[in-house]
Amino acid sequence: MGKYIPLKLYFDEQLAVRLSQLIKPYDPHFPTDSFLFNVSREVQDKELKARVEVFADELKNHLPHDYKEALAILLHVLGPENETEEGMFTKGYFLMPVAFFVERYGLHHFDTSMQAMVEITKRHTSEYAIRPYLSLDIKRCLLYFDEWITDSNAHVRRLVSEGTRPRLPWAKRISPINNDPHHNLYLLENLLDDPSPYVQKSVSNHINDITKDYPDVAINWIKKCSQHKKMNSHVMKHGLRTLIKKKDMEAMKLMAMLEIY
């Protein structure tokens, strides 16, 4: 078994070289030497998120000033879509600065950025990048979610669930959509029979998030959903895990009922 290497250590001068080589065919004037020098200097003694920020900021400083033009170049470096349901960090980690570039610099180009996030999430993930957009214009986000929730690509469908999780790990907590958990659950209801285990895991984790702040709302919603067959009982049971650990009586009764499905 190989020696464990912290993810943060991949964000170094070697990765800067890799990104430069990917960018150069689409931006012949990209100032590689300056990019490498700045990145290697700035990432020293920084943790993962700060290193990713350095990369994104230096991409902004060295690519064309126009956001759309710079983003078009970055979209060329994404590579082939991830056709599996794993490896978004182990294989797609090098795209974290691209996602953060969209997160930090793309808010004034809403539609262009939302479309870019779809392409990024097919290779890596946009679950973090999308969160400022939820705060900026949730109504416009919901219009996109209505399309993404039926997308043929599991990564895109997962983005709807994972990106809106109130307690997404490594991310700042956010309120439920329009400060009402029913809006989150409405989205999840459309994914309850999703065939992808990758999406199922996200949905159950999202439900679990809701149970931590709105246990009664979550339990009543699960009861309602259990009345029809468009439901994966495993997803529901996994979503109740925190309440079960707390020995919540209503959750335990509901778990027993779900066992018959």
In words, what does this structure look like?
There is one protein chain. This protein is mainly α and 261 residues long. The protein has a domain at 1-129. It has 15 helices and no strands. The protein has helices at 13-23, 32-42, 48-62, 67-75, 96-105, 110-121, 131-136, 138-148, 154-163, 181-189, 197-213, 215-225, 233-239, 241-245, 249-258. α3 (48-62) packs across α5 (96-105). The chain is elongated and about 65 Å long. The N and C termini lie far apart (41 Å).
Features:
0% strand; single chain; 261 residues; mainly alpha; elongated
Give the overall shape: elongated
Tally of helical runs: 15
Give the SSE string: HHHHHHHHHHHHHHH
For the secondary structure, the number of strands is 0
Q: Biggest β-sheet, characterized?
A: none
Cα-atom Rg, whole angstroms? 20 Å
How much is the average pLDDT? 94
Low-confidence stretches: none
> Gap between N and C termini, in Å?
41 Å
Report the helical percentage: 55-70%
* Helix-and-strand structural type: mainly alpha
Strand content: under 5%
> What's the quaternary structure here?
single chain
